[in-house]
Amino acid sequence: MAKLNKDFLWGGALAANQFEGGYDQGGKGLSVHDVMTAGEHGKAREITETIEADKFYPNHEGIDFYNRYKEDIGLFNEMGLKCLRTSIAWTRIFPNGDETEPNEEGLKFYDDIIDELLKYNIEPVLTLSHFEMPLHLAREYGGFRNRKVVDFFVHFAETVFNRYKDKVKYWMTFNEINNQMDTSNPLFLWTNSGVTLSEDEDAEEVLYQVAHNELIASALAVTKGKAINPNFVIGNMISHVPIYPYSCNPKDILEAEIASRLRYFFPDVQVRGYYPGYALKMFEKKGYDIKWQEGDDEILKNGTVDYIGFSYYMSTVVKHDAQQSVEDNIVNGGLSNSVANPYIKVSQWGWAIDPVGLRYTLNALYNRYQLPLFIVENGFGTTDEFKEDGTIDDQERIDYLREHINASIEAVDEDGVELMGYTPWGVIDIVSFTTGEMKKRYGLIHVDRDNEGKGTLKRTKKNSFYWYKNVIDTNGEELK
Q1: The domain that contains 278 carries what CATH number?
Q2: Does residue 170 contact residue 126 with C-beta atoms inside 8 Å?
Q3: Residue 479 falls within a domain, yes or no?
Q4: Residue 318 is part of which domain span?
Q5: For residue 322, which of 240, 263, 243 has the smallest C-alpha distance?
Q6: Whether pLDDT at 238 is above 70
Q7: d(Cα 175, Cα 342) in Å, to the nearest integer?
Q8: What is the pTM of this model?
């Protein structure tokens, strides 16, 4: 018996802001990402007030998919992808975000992309908001701290739902909606929600107000989408970094349980349709004044999701009595009591390599929510080197993907998890979200571009391209 369904969605994952480029083409407006400079390993990206001539903004060109999409989709077809998970740039449809009428040239661009995918029987899986908030909404309205932005988002969602209702089945509302729970890193609140904080504000209270507005926006989008096409399958999308206790000390166990609420808060609401008790108790104890409007309870109840899309890259460990500055641990999910896991290796960028953690995550999410799961991001960021014969032997990436795919199959075959698909992150090299680098590569297709934006943009298939093609051809039966 085959371990995966014959309609399993093998694919690849990308984000408009990281690969499209064409930031000033086709009537596109500026997004929150368009004012982020390039960073580097261990150095944060700068958010500038405007586009400054003496700074480099790597997302402006990306890998120029905007002008090369037929070539790239042809490569995706050659690889055998069954789906492509990507996003619609909000700023291509509504350049400022608060317009009444959409930009037809932007809508036509995605018509062309979707049609090209469907020509090859590649299923589009579209995220509505993948760090693509219009800059105007962030600067003029304060981003999602402002309830008016909910209405703008819902108008955007309705517009694209109506436009592509007969072409696209699978949708997600907000990408990694929960990664902004790390209030120590302003990058996340900015990219997720267009929010900046003042010194006198309680970051956590602002976060939960922003969260409430986005949860309402997500629920309204689900309800509107289902009214437009009842056959839509609309999910949420979360970042999941499982949190292990350091030991069997009951205090470590409890610490991991409490810390995991940072991972579960958003999906708890999006799946169940109401706020969990731990959040309400925390609001009460801290005196947080989260602004609810009449009817919000019904909105959340009626707008629950059909499936859970999630990213998985690594795990982390907490120890109840450990204390360090967040800056001392680059992979701690914003937790001040994280410690190293002595049982696993780390990548070149310090990310924990833990394929067993993916099987653990699949079980944890499925047992908690009993909804179909979709691994929409998983990948290995590292440098690439060309061999003398012009090939790229990225065996380390192949090993990473193999081990994580095998863990996913075990969760299905051994544990009974319902898994819809698997789309490795950065199926083609793209600009890194966290650092703006090209040097940190995830792709199975190499793009000739460096950290300074130099290069021919030539596409080259890596060894992992051919390996993944065989995985898809055999529906995961051959992973060697």
Answers
A1: 3.20.20.80
A2: yes
A3: no
A4: 9-473
A5: 243
A6: yes
A7: 31
A8: 0.96
Asked if residue 340 belongs to a domain, the reply is yes
Q: Are strands 352-353 and 373-377 parallel, antiparallel or unpaired?
A: unpaired
Q: Please tell me the distance from the alpha carbon of residue 307 to that of residue 222, in angstroms, as a whole number.
A: 12
The tokens describing 402, both together, are 């193999």
Check 20, 123, 132, 377 and give the catalytic one: 377
Pairing assessment for the beta strands 459-461 and 445-447 based on DSSP bridges: antiparallel
Strand pairing report for 83-87 and 307-311: unpaired
Cα separation, 34 vs 54, in Å, equals: 15
| pLDDT of 136 higher than 50 | yes
Q: Which residues of 9-37 are buried (b: 16+ CB within 10 A; e: fewer)?
A: bbbbbbbbbbbbbbbeebebbbbbbbbbb
**CA-based nearest residue to 376, from 306, 310, 429:** 310
Could you confirm whether 478 is annotated as catalytic?
no
Strands, E, within 206-359: which ranges?
233-239, 243-245, 307-311, 316-318, 338-339, 345-346, 352-353
What type of residue is 270? Q
Q: Which residue has the tokens 């095998």?
A: 406
Cα–Cα distance, 330 to 204 (Å, whole number): 21
Question: For residue 33, which amino acid is it?
Answer: H
Q: Can you read off the two tokens belonging to residue 208?
A: 């939960």
395 located within any domain: yes
Amino acid at 475: N
Domain count, the chain: 1
- pLDDT tens, residue by residue, 340-395: 899 999 988 888 999 999 999 999 999 999 999 999 999 999 999 999 999 999 99
Residue 3 included in any domain: no
